[in-house]
Specification:
The complex is a heterodimer of chains A (325) and B (275). In chain A, helix 5 packs across helix 12 (265-274). In chain A, 73% of the residues lie in helices and 0% in strands. Chain A is flat, with a radius of gyration of 25 Å. Chain A is built from 14 helices and no strands. Chain A has 325 residues and is mainly α. Chain B has 275 residues and is mainly alpha-helical. In chain B, helix 2 (62-97) packs antiparallel against helix 3 (102-116), helix 2 packs across helix 6 (147-161) and helix 6 packs across helix 8 (176-188). Chain B is elongated. The chains are: A mainly alpha (325), B mainly alpha (275). The interface between A and B is large, with 52 and 47 residues.
């Protein structure tokens, strides 16, 4: 995000510039990938420390305070908690490489398929919500740019941040139940587009934020000299917006999109619980109630892999959009 | 110019008042009547002159509960916000000033790590293992929530330090400290603060989410999120239990954002008129 990057492009022959860019981008892609694996390892280490180093004894916590010392000991043996930390760490890493996340303590089912299925539902809602926000913030900015008298739209969507998602969700559910009693909100967990109502509610907050961010960027572009030049050259209003306001704003706007995905994650969990959608919200609640630490660890790790993957891809794409990065 | 500065101070004062004084006013308002005293002869009273906001299913005064809960929730959210903001300023500032060198690398690395897992999930996992009370949970969220604003602050510090007006001041011979305090800090402080403050409603509501996990405030202590959430369960029977706290929350946030928006505009104006 350098403010004033002054590369004198005119002094470099065009061919050399593009060749250098290709080599540099290959190296930076490699660096980003390597650092992602570093991050992944850190996330794994965090999970490991959380469940093995903290003063609480997982076996004791899982079995509850009334369990006998013998059964705690045997569970410790079964989970391998009596081995040295290094041995535990290497064993868990070995399991991780072979994609073995262990089995659920509650019902003995393997963790990974369970987590994948439920996590998919949650992240589906998240992606839908943030994509709705992306589209709506684009449309509102386009409308306000073309017809400035619609400026109040920006203020209107700003109301999305005055109430937390659960309140909007409950009020929404109540209103829908009152005006459209035929629509069933709870049974809509099947299919990718089924949870559109929760997604729409979850999107209100990102809509408010992303509309503001894009608006601010567009206003900055409008104040710049290249924008005046574009008007002078005679570009149409639409082309002014898309080429000279939207394009320079792509990176902050898309970065906000990626950030929102992680930020609304918790709101999504709560919405799932309110609308009784069987996603990772329910999975987490059960895992915490039953002290099912393998599931908890699985959710944390799958999450980490997903978000690290997203941020890696976005960094590579952003470097394509804006070579200065 | 001078009037702009005066207005900025005024708005800042208003903001601090809203964040750090109003919660305590709410708390003391709520404590005028006992928010947890059960009175079974006055169950589900409608709002009237004796009970302004009515009473709930256990005959507890909704007025006292609403204000007590709002005070408690906002107090915890403000504390968490303050912790995040201070951490973001210190760590993001260090990273921005030591651009590319090892302190920056370490801090940026930690930020990326926090980013890999949604921080509420970390809080839930930690809370499940160490089982803290609600106050400590908010502190925990504050201790994790600095990553996003710190990243913003670092970026704006770096951007401002390479800008024309800072270059001009260096040429003029001003010390780096003076440049940082007078020309970089006031402009760079706004984006991270905005990012944080727009998160306050969710911060207040985190309590509802945590209570699904058995980790929120324990009854009978009322918190704003729980009050609204539980009230919605009996909204057909007694609308006032949930509507008053929800209205109070929305009005508070509308006023808060009015002040914040005004402040942003003022700082933006003074920022552009200076150079």
């Amino acid at each position: 995000m350098g403010g004033e990057v002054s590369v004198d492009i005119t002094s470099v022959p065009l061919g050399e510039l593009s060749e250098g860019w290709g080599r540099r981008s290959a190296r930076s892609v490699l660096r980003i990938v390597v650092s992602s694996f570093g991050l992944l390892f850190t996330a794994f280490l965090f999970c490991f420390l959380l469940f093995s180093v903290l003063p609480s004894d997982p076996a004791r916590v899982m079995l509850g305070p009334n369990a006998s010392q013998d059964s705690v000991e045997s569970l410790r043996e079964e989970l391998g908690l009596n081995d040295s930390l290094v041995k535990q760490l290497t064993r868990q890493m070995g399991q991780l490489v072979t994609l073995d996340f262990g089995r659920s303590i509650r019902d003995g089912r393997p963790v990974l398929p369970e987590v994948f299925e439920k996590f998919g539902v949650t992240i589906g809602i998240g992606i839908q919500a943030t994509t709705i926000a992306l589209l709506v913030s684009y449309l509102i900015n386009l409308i306000v740019f073309l017809r400035p008298k619609f400026g109040w739209l920006i203020g209107l969507v700003g109301f999305g941040v005055v109430a937390p998602a659960f309140l909007l969700a409950m009020a929404g559910a109540l209103l829908i139940g009152y005006f459209f009693p035929g629509i069933s909100l709870t049974a809509s967990a099947e299919g990718f587009f089924a949870p559109l109502v929760p997604s729409a509610i979850a999107s209100l907050y990102p809509i408010a934020l992303m509309t503001r961010i894009l608006r601010k960027q567009v206003e900055e572009c409008q104040a710049s000299s290249f924008f005046r030049a574009a008007i002078a050259v005679g570009h149409s209003k639409e082309s002014q917006f898309h080429r000279f306001a939207l394009q320079p704003s792509l990176v902050p706007w898309l970065a906000a999109w990626i950030n929102q995905l992680s930020l609304i994650f918790f709101a999504t969990l709560v919405l799932e619980l309110i609308f009784s959608i069987s996603g990772s919200g329910v999975l987490l609640v059960n895992a915490i109630q039953d002290r099912d630490f393998p599931i908890l660890q699985g959710v944390l790790l799958v999450n980490a892999v997903f978000f690290i993957g997203i941020s890696t891809i976005s960094e590579i794409v952003f470097a394509r959009i804006d070579p200065r990065l | 110019m001078k009037s702009t500065r005066k207005q900025i101070f005024l708005q800042c004062g208003l903001l601090l008042l809203l964040l750090f004084v109003v919660p305590f006013v709410f708390l003391s308002l709520g404590q005028r009547a006992d928010p947890i005293a059960i009175d079974s002869s006055n169950r589900y009273l409608e709002p009237a002159s004796q009970a302004w906001f009515g009473t709930d299913g256990l005959g507890r005064s909704s007025f006292a509960r609403t204000f007590y809960a709002a005070g408690l929730s906002l107090k915890m959210a403000s504390q968490s916000l303050l912790v995040s903001f201070v951490l973001a300023l210190i760590l993001g500032g260090i990273a921005g000033l030591t651009r590319g060198r090892w302190p920056d690398r370490i801090i940026s690395w930690v930020i990326s790590v926090i980013y890999t897992i949604p921080f509420v999930l970390i809080a839930v996992a930690l809370a499940a293992v160490i089982q803290p009370d609600i106050g400590s949970t908010y502190l925990l969220i504050g201790l994790l929530g600095w990553a996003a604003p710190a990243r913003l602050f670092r970026a704006s510090v770096m951007q401002l330090r390479s800008s024309q007006h800072v270059l001009a001041q260096r040429a003029y011979g001003f010390s780096e400290t003076r440049i940082f305090l007078r020309s970089v800090l006031p402009l760079a402080i706004v984006p991270p603060f905005l990012g944080l403050i727009y998160f306050v409603p969710e911060l207040v509501a985190i309590d509802v989410g945590l209570s699904f996990f058995g980790l929120g405030a324990q009854p009978p202590t009322p918190t704003l999120g729980r009050l609204i959430y539980d009230g919605f369960g009996e909204v057909r029977l007694a609308w006032w239990i949930s509507v008053f706290p929800a209205a109070l929350m929305i009005v508070f946030f509308i006023i808060l954002y009015r002040v914040v928006d005004g402040l942003t505009m003022l700082v933006g104006k003074s920022g552009t008129s200076k150079h």
